[in-house]
Amino acid sequence: MRGILIALVTAAVAACGHDAAPTEPPDRGSASADDLAREQARFDSERRPDLVVKALGLKPGSRVADVGAGLGLLTVHLARAVAPTGKVTATDVAAHVLELMKQRLAVAGLDGVVEGRVVAADTPGLEAGTYDAILLAEVDNYFSDPVAWLQAALPALKPGGRIVIENRIHHRAKSMAAAQKAGLVLRDETNPVPTHFLAVFVAPPDTATIKASP
Asked: Which of 89, 97, 122, 166 has minimal Cβ neighbours within 10 Å of its Cβ?
């Protein structure tokens, strides 16, 4: 688990998150490097973040948004992929969760690659025409209106950019239906691990007519 549910519980906002409670309490304070390493190793073995990075098409210099970044378990992999000249915008609904994420990034020497950004519930909060990729990992099922969120996020993509949705299999039908209604074009779908699907979308041809979210 990436930890975004911490933000949801403490902020009482039903926006982005994950399916089960995190293994660490919200007020865990500063974790040791060993604790962070064990947590990261467990996550990496369960979720195959290398396949998520591949689906995003990241390379040094890329700009990517990690929506609902939580404790940064995926963020650290995105940062490594785009370093040293790229940038990760890691969003969450609670500032204190992003502060915990910074511990992981600092230990990995990647804190300069990632910008933590607090966003409102159901609002992408991403600049127009900026991102090569937008990642929603175990997040879209918490949006009150996923179709509206996806439509609001589309203008943030650069030409040829992609939106990648990764979530548990039991959310697949709703995720795919929302993406279709939002006008996204499916380019690829895989199962990085048996419990999750990974869908890669690109913008519809008429994205330019959609206004960017504030």
From this structure: 122
Residue 140 belongs to a domain:
yes
Contact status, residue 164 vs residue 198, Cβ threshold 8 Å: yes
CA distance 13 to 93: 8
Asked if the structure places residue 214 within a domain, the reply is: no
Cβ atoms 3, 97 nearer than 8 A = yes
Domain membership of residue 148 as a residue range: 4-209
Q: What is the count of structural domains for the chain?
A: 1
pLDDT tens for residues 110-153? 989 999 999 998 999 999 999 999 999 999 999 999 999 999 99
**Lookup: tokens for 210:** 């959609």
Residues 6+ apart with CB under 8 A from 109: none
CATH number, residue 135: 3.40.50.150
Distances (CA, A) of 115 to 66, 71, 89: 10, 13, 5
How far is residue 157's CA from residue 134's CA, in Å, rounded to a whole number? 8
Note the pTM of the prediction, 2 decimals: 0.83
Element (H, E) at 76: helix 75-82
